[in-house]
Structure formats: structure tokens, C-alpha cells
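Q: I have 123 residues here and want to know how they pack in 3D. Can you give me a structure?
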Amino acid sequence: MSWDDVRSLRAQGFEVGSHTMNHVDLGIVAGDQARTEIVGSKDRLERELGGAVSFFTYPFGRRHQITEENRQLVEEAGFTCCLSAYGGSVAAGDALFQLKRTPVSPWHISPYQFGFETMLERS
């Protein structure tokens, strides 16, 4: 996507969130490098879009790829919440910096199948 494409989506009401600068594995990357990836992606998006970016999603968001140190960096960067990639539904009262998400992939052959799979993940 070009920046104009991203701006167009935002103008149409889509929420655009941050995902690190270089799609790094935050289960491996830590310290200053992680801070640069997290904060840099937020700063760049906000500059390009001319507005606040509130949401962060881990590029590789399995449980073992989300460290408490990096979760804290996401919160300190000023995000409202962040999402994992290990599946599941969000419920009222869930911790805002430990939200689950159901990834969309070619496995989902229709919106109905996606909905069915999502319902199965609820617990």
C-alpha cells in the first residue's frame, strides 16, 4: 500500500494501527531496539496520517513472542491498547494491553466460516 492508500482508508473511517517499523519479532527484540520499533512506528504513522494512532498489534503475537518488558514499552508509547495474534475473543473487562485477536487468513474461505471459527474460539 502507498501512504495515499492508507490515508484514503483512514478518511473512509478505517482505524489504522501500529505494527512496528520493520515487522520484527518482539519476543526476540528488546531494549532500545524494541523501543525504536514501537515508538518509531507510532510516530511515523501519526506524521503520515496527520492524527493520533491509538492501537498497536504485535507482528508476531503468539504468547511466547510478547514479553512483559515490550508490553510495557507499548503502554509507555501512549497507545490505548494492544492486540496479540494468538486467537480468541475480547470480553468486557479484559486487560487493554493483553487483548486477543483472531487473525484473518486464506484458511477462512468465507465470512460465514470465519464467524464460525471465531465462535469456536470463545471461552
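Q: Anything worth noting?
A: The CA atoms of residues 21 and 42 lie 9 Å apart. The mean pLDDT is 87.
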